[in-house]
Structure formats: C-alpha cells, structure tokens
Design a protein that fits this description.
The complex is a heterotrimer of chains A (262), B (528) and C (311). Chain A has a single domain, classed as MetI-like (MetI-like fold). Helix content of chain A is 74%, strand content 0%. Chain A is built from ten helices and no strands. The longest helix of chain A has 37 residues. With 528 residues, chain B is of the alpha/beta class. Chain B has a domain of 242 residues: P-loop containing nucleotide triphosphate hydrolases (Rossmann fold), CATH 3.40.50.300. In chain C, helix 5 packs parallel to helix 12 and helix 7 packs across helix 8. Classes of the chains: A mainly alpha (262), B alpha/beta (528), C mainly alpha (311). At the A-C interface, helix 5, helix 8, helix 9 and helix 10 of A face helix 1, helix 6, helix 7, helix 10 and helix 11 of C.
C-alpha cells in the first residue's frame, strides 16, 4: 500500500510538473542516437528518432491521467443522473432509460468507445469523449440498482411519511447513499479509462506522433520489437504501473471509509 | 444409569484482540433423553458454546477446555480429521431458517443423505436412499419420496425445517444441537416443530437447545442454563428456574416475556367524533414472477376510535405490512378507501396530503434500516422537526429535538452519534422520537419489537404505552406475537391471507374466539 | 416457460432494431457528404457525376424513406455496400470473421481453464496472496502490452512461435493467451470471491456439521454457487474478448474483423461500420439470451414452481 502511494505521488508529479522529473525533452530528436538501449544517459533508451524514451513516458503521464480522471468523473455524474432517472422517474421514462442501459451494457466498453470514435471521428480531443460515453452505462446500471435498494429502506419510507419533498429526499438521502459504490467503481474505472484511451491511441485513432502519448508509443514500439524492445515495453509498463497504483490506493480509501461506517 | 452423553467443563473461547473471552469457563452436562436449554441474548456466547461441541468454532479463536465429552467420546485435543468423523454420525446440528441452512441448489434428498454419503466405509446407494426416506418419515415429512426430489424453496417453512432436522438425524447421532430451530417460523408451526424435537428426545437423543427466548424453551427443556456475556449465570431444572429464579438477570428475562395479562385495566374512555383512522374494502395485489397476481389484501375494513389501541394479529404473509403502508398512504390500494380523522386520506392528491402527513406516523420492524446511516441522530430529528407546521426559530427547534429525545428516554449525548453506533433498542427509540416530532395523532407500529432482544422489548412496549397515555395517541399495533397484542390492545383484529377473519374487543376475541384459525393461534400461544 | 422465451426473443429483436436505428441516426449525424468520403477529398468530379453517384447510393431520397429502405434491406440480410471497398458488406465481414472467431473461441477456453485453476489454487493464505497479485497485474495491464511482451520474449528472443502468420495452431497460441489473460484474471477473482462467500453461508456450516471435508465442501456445494456468479459475467466476458480481439489482431498482425473495423473507422466507411455494429448487437443480444436461459436452467429457484408450494 505504501509503495503504491509513493508511486502514485510520483505519477501525479510527472503529470503536473514533468520538468521536475526529467531534464530531457520529449521532442528533441537526434538521429545519431537512434534506438540506443537503456543506459546511464537515457534510462529507458531512445526511440527511432533518437528521442529520450524516459522523457516521453514522463510527459505522456499528463495526457493519460487527465483523460482517465476527466472521463471517469464525467461518466460518473452522467451515469448517476441516468440511473436515478431509470429508477425513480415516471413509468415511461423509467422503462425507456432502463432498456437503454440494458442494451448499452450488453456491449463491452472498448467496442462502445470504438463506436463513438466511428461516429465523431478520430483525433486527440475525441478520445476522452469516447472513453466517457463508453463508461456511462456501467455507472448508470449501478446507480439504478443502488437507488432501487435505497428507496426501499425504512428511512426513505420515514422521510416520505414525514412529508419531505421528493426532490429533497433524492438530494439529501438517496444520492449520498448511492455515491459510495459509484466511487468504488470509479477507483477501478480510472484505470480502465486510461487503458481504453491508450488502446484507442494504439490503434491510431487518437493523438498523432510526435505527441508523447503512451498508446502511440506502444504502437511505434511494435515495429522495432525485434531490435529495440525498450521503445514499446516501457510505455506499457507505465500504463500498468499507473493502473495498479490507482486501484490499490483507491481500494485502500474504500476500505477505510467502510470501516468508518461500521 | 449410563454416563452423560455430553460433558463439558471449563470451556473458554477467546478471539484474538478481544478484551474478554467470548465463552468464559462454561461447564454443563446432558444425559441421554434429556434437553438442556442454553438461553441468552445475542452476544451471550450461547451459539459459540454449541458450535464447540462440533469443533466448528472459527479457526482464529483460541479454545481451552478441561473436559469435553461429546456423544460419549472424549474430544479433547481432537484434530480436524477426528472431528469430521464425529460430526453427523454422533452429533447433529439443526440451525434456524432452513431456507438458508439447506443448500438451495441441491435436492432435499441429497442434503438429507449427505451425512450418509460421507460415512466410511461406503454405503451402497439403495441403503442410503432407504435411510433418507426413513429420516424424512421420522421427521414427519409426508410423501417423503416425492419431497426428497424437491428443492428447499419448494417446501413450506415448517416442512423445510423438518427436512433440515431429517438431515441432522439421518446419521443417527446420539446428540442433537438445535440452534434457534424455530425462529423463522410462525407460532403454530413452532409448536409442531417442538413436538417433533420432544419426540426425538423421548427416543433417547441428548438435546442441546439454544434460544434467546426463555418463554419458548418452556415446552421442551428439562434443565435451563442462562448465559450472559460468555458465562453461565444459573443452571437449574426448568420448573425450578421458571418459578423461582435465583439470579436477578434471569428474573429480568422472565419479566420481559410479555405475558397475556393485560396491562390496561378498562377501555379508554369513548371520545366523540369520527374515528381517528378508518378503512373500507381495501384490496391490493401485486404481479408475481410468473405473470399471475399475489393478493396481499382482500377487502380489509375496520375503524379505530381516537385514543384507543387497535391490535392486529397476523403471521407473515397475512398482508399486515402492506396494510401498514396503505394506511400511511405510502402505497395506493387497488380499490378501497382510507380516511384519517374523517377526511379522505388515500384518495387525496399527494400535494395536499403532504402537509397533513404529520398527523399519522409509522414505526417499523427493522431498526437497522430505519435511520439514514450517514446522518447523526440530531440531524435526523432536526429534519423531522423542521417539517412541523410552525417550527419556530432555530433555538426553539433545537430545544424540541432535546425534548423528543427526553420523551423516548434517550440522553442528549446521543445527538452526535450515527446509527451504527447505537444499539437496536436505541435506534428504535430514535425512530419513535422522529415519528413524534410532528405531533401525530395516530401512530402505526408494524412489528415494533420483533427484531429486538427480549429484555428490550418490554421497555419499548412500555414506552409506547406511556406515550399513548401522555400524548393521547391512537395506536395501531401490528404483530405476529399474540402475547404482545393481548398485552396492549383495546380491540383485536385477526388477519390471515389478506383477510380479516375475526375482530372485536380484546376480551371476546381472546377468550371466546369464533374462527378456527384464531382458536389454533390461541392454543399454540398457550403452550409457550 | 414458452412465454419467457418469447419475451426474451422479443427483447433481442428490440435490441437489434435499436442498434439499427441508432446506427442509421449516427450516419445522419456525421458531418460531411458521404459522396466526398467515397471519392476522396482530392477528386475533381463534375456535379452531374456527383448526382449520379448520389442516386446510385440512394442518398437523394428524404431521410424517412431512406430509413425504411434501409430497414427493408436489413431484413433481407443486405447490409449495404462498402464505400471504400466497393463490395457488399456481408462479404467483407464473412471473409474476415473466421480468424476472429477462432481466436475468440481459443481465448475463451484458455481463460476458463486458467481462471478455474487460479481460483481453486488460491485457497491457502500464502497462495491467495500470490494469486491475488497475479490477478491484479494481469487485470491492470493493457492487452496490447501483454501481447507485445509475449511477442518480444517468445517470438523474437526464443523463437518458439511465429511472429506474424495466421495459419496453424502455433500461430494461435500467443494471441489467444494474450487475449485470455486479463479475462482469466477477472473470472478468477470473481470465482474466488464467490467461493469465499458461499463458504460463509449458513448451508456451508450445515454441510460442515455433517462431517464434510474442505475439498468436499467445494466440490459438492460452493463451486456450484460460485459458478453461477460467474455465469452472470459471461456476457461481459465474451464481449471483452471480442473487444480485445481488435487490439490483439493488430499487435500480432492477424487478419480478422479487427483490421476491417479499424480500417473502416479511419476511412469513415460507414456501411461497414454499421454492418459490424449490427452484427455485434446480434451476437451480444443472443449471448445474453443464452446466458439468461441457462440461469433459469441451472438455478432451481428461478424455474417456474412445479405444483406450487404446499404445507
């Protein structure tokens, strides 16, 4: 846990102030130094244009983290609203939204994201949108089922018996009690979002070179796998490490909050 | 005179990190054909004690014991393998609620026969099959051949429990441990199961009965041991203990058994005016899984006079919770009307009804989901007080919260606490305080004490009684427990399968019941 | 029972219709003239020719007519013609579907085997830690990275497996392993948690009171309960296998629907994209239907009660 915390702190630092973590530039090319293995000067080696791989990995942190956190936050809020509507709305709304959620849930997240890209087009700015939209159904479904459970508890019946206005019931009682499981999902969701975003980039649907981004670095690295494995392996390592760090820390906070309530 | 089938001395069970042992130096013995009842409230250590006879104490707990003879076998220092040989064959276990104690994915026959399939040497299939049928018959399961092919959820509660008992005796054990064997059942079925256990006892079984209810074990126990916080306070022959208890705690438990002696002397004085609450022709049905309908209420009508207590008796499935919610206008009936103080209630639109909601409030069975787990007691009560028609300035409202806590006998120190920091009894009191905040005239109590410990029950019922006196409340008390209804009501209504089958003044319903079901109910409660 | 099946099938059709309509709407939403897409940006084409192409593709009709024509064609199994490749979408998909199916099937079997062994092995305290860690790593790593690693180690360094081909069992090993690992990680976790949960239930205590051994408890009771939990996941599982197939095919340069999909997305070849979407919707809907029905088959509590409950 401690190790994950330190790693996460480092990752955030890399995202917010990459110049503090590495002196090198992610863009500076140097044909003479192309495809050098890891060494003292370049811990992760250099890529085909002689750029420092370590610097590129560090600078790529910002994009991945931003997409991961941003898309997840968006999906959580949108999913919450959809789920509430699907559980509490008037019959027609309830039915339509529930059907919609069920249909979307039968598609895997990555394919949904691909579909969104297909509709809105490729490009760096569209990746977060695709990732967010693809993640919404899962949050909506959990929000819906949690809302159903909560609305059948004694304290909600008591609130209604007291004459509390329905909107106040939702805002004061229902939402605070369903947010917990959603946040738990989000701790894993951020990791999934990062992986999905880099997967889309890997396929060439996102940022284009020379932008330092983990996904495209991996796709470039694939071409040099036989001779220069470090170009592709280290970016992938960065993704894995980030996801593990985030989910470990997230799980820790989740268990702490559970203890506080029991 | 053979030696005792069970002999335990100086049994202690301690969990790592606990300040005190969960079971503290417990000793007792049970002879063949005898029933010892271990009685105590939750947390008293009775279940752990029972499990230690099977070696099923959780592995992280430390067990120390002087003598431990089970079914005549000295089990001191037993390894897990030795325990396994003993379990099922010499000692059997019957837990509460067969619905979760039997594997829902396995047929009854397979569950009953499991102990036989595990025995060594291997028994041939047909022998096992025959023994399964024998065990089911012994446990009083009719059509055993047909039943053994069914799944637990397909049997009624009583039959399921019999099947569970069959699975415990199939291995022909000498000792049977029954841990709250009838808690999930209605009172008539409870009596039947106890008859079965008594018959098994007669045939030579040594029976250890674990229960939280002192009144319940009366029927079966030869000797009773009262446990509290891990230790046995008192152990004596049943008749002795119940007539002349030595320990003060035992006396407390006994007093908590709500007897059928009425607490109320005369009827409350007749108050002029329309009935405080009345309903006419209530029907409510729900769609069920297979596309059909379940009728929860079939034409229920009654009225309650202001200031009196209406007691509604009904087993689970009689429709009483649905009734409570419809009376509270939390659900709409399919047909029929409810009137509150002579004014339309069920038919009134919610917008106009919302402001009147303070007149009628609800106390429910489960104190564990009655309070928002994230809110403090103060905030919960404050929300209710703020809704009052003329709440006044902030300091007046805060004073009202303190007043409410006082009314239900809670200290204002609890204002900052959250639900999980309160006991079941305390939570129920907070729920009552919340219900009183809007100064209701009618209070509906749906099984208000069923989920509470025996000693707390009497306190809560007494609280409701005194609140009624001091605030002039009209009470509608709903329960499956005839004792509680008899204790507190002016008028009694008996419900079954969504219908009112008998109604009238308390004396006439309890002493001269007309309907055969009411008579059965009364007979079952007499024996407890 | 028949009613239940009928309702489920109805839902499948509803999903299909929803997907088709959504797809059609999506097409309408895309900015730009499909004709431009087809001809390429650089093409200098006369307006008359443009008009001809428009009529040829039915793009001159009002949207509502186009919608019904589209639905009509769908019902006949005609998914339209690819803008880019000029051949019927059905053919394009059918040609490439087989390698993808092979890959997915192999991965599914592998995933189940790995997951079950992982869950059953992770019972002791130390083993549980090791297996949990493995699961965590496997779930957190992007599929394409695992593929790259496997390629680097086993193909390039050790030369055990061919680098890029699609024939023969050998070429299937690394890709299906790559695809299977993350899924196996999740299933293993769910299975293990399911086993632990079932073990804490009342019926497990009853079984133990009959003298059952830990292994017997798993075999006779808890495994079935845990497997039921996993069944709920299977729709999601196959889905993520199919989704991952796109990435894995790219990493290992295998032909298949993945390549088709990506090329179509980049080239904005809408009929192909739509065709794949509709087909995917069909597959998933049918899959969920099968899972749903199996659930009823396996859990006696969900079957219609025979002869009712009687006292």
């Amino acid at each position: 846990m401690v190790a994950a915390g330190i790693l996460l702190a480092l990752i955030f630092l890399a995202a917010l102030a990459p110049w503090l973590v590495t002196g090198a530039s992610p863009f500076e090319t140097n044909a003479a130094l192309s495809l050098q293995p890891p060494s003292g000067a370049h811990i992760f080696g250099t890529d085909q244009s002689g750029r420092d791989v370590f610097a590129r990995v560090v600078y790529g942190t910002r994009y991945s983290l931003a997409v991961g956190l941003g898309a997840t936050a968006l999906a959580l809020v949108a999913g919450l609203i959809l789920g509430l509507g699907a559980a509490l709305g008037p019959r027609i709304v309830e039915g339509a939204l529930s059907r919609l959620i069920d249909v979307l849930m039968s598609f895997p997240e990555f394919l949904l994201a691909l579909l969104v890209i297909a509709v809105v087009g490729t490009g760096e700015a569209n990746i977060p949108l695709a990732v967010a939209l693809a993640a919404i159904p899962a949050y909506a479904r959990v929000a819906r089922s949690e809302t159903v459970v909560v609305s059948q508890t004694g304290y909600i019946r008591a609130a209604r018996s007291l004459g509390v206005h329905p909107i106040a019931v939702v805002w004061r009682h229902i939402i605070p009690n369903i947010v917990g499981p959603l946040l738990v999902m989000a701790t894993i969701g951020v990791g999934t979002a990062i992986v999905t975003a880099s997967g889309l980039s890997f396929l060439g649907l996102g940022p284009q070179p020379p932008t330092p981004e983990w996904g495209i670095m991996l796709s470039e690295g694939r071409n040099f796998l036989a001779t220069a494995w470090w170009v592709g392996v280290f970016p992938g390592l960065a993704i894995t490490a980030t996801v593990i760090a985030i989910s470990t820390v997230g799980r820790y906070f989740r268990s702490q909050s559970e203890v506080a309530l029991s | 005179m053979s030696s005792p089938r069970v002999e335990i001395s100086h049994l202690s069970v301690t969990f790592p990190g606990a300040s005190a042992p969960a079971v503290n130096d417990v000793s007792f013995h049970i002879d063949a054909g005898e029933c010892l009842a271990l009685v105590g409230e939750s947390g008293s250590g009775k279940t752990l004690t029972a499990l230690s006879l099977l070696g099923l104490v959780p592995p992280e707990a430390a067990v120390s014991v002087g003598t431990r003879v089970v079914a005549g076998v000295n089990t001191r220092g037993f390894t897990e393998a030795k325990w396994r040989a003993l379990r099922g064959n010499r000692v059997g276990l019957v837990s509460q609620d067969a619905l979760v104690s039997l594997d829902p994915l396995r047929e009854i026959g397979s569950e009953v026969g499991e102990v036989l399939e595990l025995s060594r040497p291997r028994l041939p299939r047909d022998v096992i099959a025959q023994r399964v049928l024998d065990a089911l018959e012994l446990a009083g399961v009719p059509q055993p051949h047909y039943r053994s092919r069914q799944y637990p959820h397909e049997l009624s509660g009583g039959l399921r429990q019999r099947a569970l008992i069959a699975s415990a005796i199939a291995g022909q054990p000498e000792v049977l441990i029954a841990d709250e064997p009838t808690t999930a059942l209605d009172s008539i079925t409870q009596a039947h199961i106890f008859d079965l256990l008594a018959a098994l006892k007669e045939s030579g079984l040594a029976l250890l009965l674990v229960s939280h209810d002192l009144g319940l074990v009366r029927q079966l126990a030869d000797r009773i041991a009262v446990m509290r916080e891990g230790a046995i306070l008192e152990c004596a022959p049943a008749a002795e203990l119940l007539e002349a208890p030595q320990h003060s705690y035992t006396r407390e438990l006994l007093n908590a058994v709500v007897t059928r002696q009425p607490a109320r002397g005369t009827h409350a004085a007749l108050i002029e005016g329309p009935p405080a609450l009345s309903c006419l022709g209530l029907h409510r049905s729900y769609p069920d899984r297979e596309g059909g309908f379940v009728e929860a209420l079939r034409g229920v009508s009654f009225s309650v006079r202001a200031g009196t207590t209406m007691g509604i008796v009904g087993e689970s499935g009689s429709g009483k919770s649905t009734l409570a919610r419809i009376l509270m206008a939390l659900e709409k009936p399919n047909s029929g009307v409810v009137e509150l103080a002579g004014e339309p209630w069920s038919l009134a639109p919610e917008r106009s009804r919302r402001s009147r909601r303070g007149e009628i409030q609800l106390i429910e069975q489960n104190p564990y989901d009655a309070l928002d787990p994230r809110w403090s007691v103060g905030r919960i009560l404050q929300e209710a007080v703020n809704l009052d028609s003329s709440p006044g300035p902030a300091w007046v409202r805060r004073a009202r919260v303190a007043e409410l806590l006082d009314q239900v006998g809670l200290s204002t120190q609890l204002i900052g606490r959250r639900a999980h920091q309160l006991s079941g009894g305390q939570r129920q009191r907070v729920a009552i305080a919340r219900a009183l905040a809007r100064r209701p005239s009618v209070l509906i109590c749906d099984e208000p004490v069923s989920a509470l410990d025996a000693s707390v029950r009497a306190q809560i019922l007494a609280l409701l009684h005194s609140l009624q006196k001091s605030l002039g409340l009209t009470l509608v008390l709903i329960s499956h427990d005839l004792g509680i209804i008899a204790h507190s009501s002016d008028e009694v209504l008996v419900m079954r399968h969504g219908e009112v089958i008998e109604s009238g003044l308390r004396e006439s319903v309890l002493n001269h019941p007309v309907h055969p079901f009411t008579q059965e109910l009364l007979a079952a409660s007499k024996s407890l | 029972m028949v009613g239940v099946i009928a309702r489920r099938v109805g839902r499948v059709l509803l999903v299909m219709w929803g997907a088709a309509t959504a797809g059609f709407l999506a097409l309408r939403l895309i900015p730009g003239d499909p004709v431009d897409v087809m001809l390429g940006v650089q093409a200098q084409v006369s307006d008359a020719l443009r008009e001809q192409i428009r009529v040829e593709w039915g793009l001159d009709q009002p949207p509502l007519i186009q919608y019904f024509q589209y639905l009509g064609r769908l019902l006949q199994g005609d998914l339209g013609v690819s803008y880019q490749l000029r051949s019927p979408v059905i053919e394009v998909i059918a040609q490439q579907a087989v390698p993808t199916l092979q890959l997915t099937a192999a991965a599914l079997v592998l995933a189940l085997v790995l997951a079950t062994s992982g869950a059953l092995m992770g019972r002791g305290k130390r083993m549980k830690r090791v297996i949990s860690l493995l699961e965590l790593v496997v779930i957190s790593s992007p599929t394409f990275w695992i593929g790259l690693l496997l390629l680097a180690v086993f193909s390039f360094q050790l030369n055990w497996f061919p680098v890029a081909s699609s024939d023969g069992l050998a070429s299937l090993v690394l890709p299906s392993l790559t695809l299977a690992l993350p899924v196996a990680g999740i299933v293993s976790q769910v299975l293990r948690q399911g086993l632990d949960f079932a073990q804490g239930q009342a019926f497990s205590t009853t079984a133990r009171s009959r003298g059952i051994s830990p292994a017997g408890l798993v075999a006779r009771h808890t495994l079935r309960h845990a497997a039921m939990d996993t069944l709920t996941l299977s729709g999601y599982l196959v889905g993520s296998l199919l989704g991952g197939a796109v990435l894995v095919e790219t990493v290992f340069a295998r032909p298949g629907l993945g390549q088709v999909a990506i090329r179509a997305i980049i080239a904005r070849d809408l009929p192909v994209i739509l065709g794949i979407v509709i087909l995917a919707a069909l597959v998933f809907a049918l899959l969920n239907l099968v899972v749903d029905l199996s659930y009823r088959f396996l859990d006696p509590r969900l079957r219609a009660s025979r002869a009712g409950v009687s006292a």
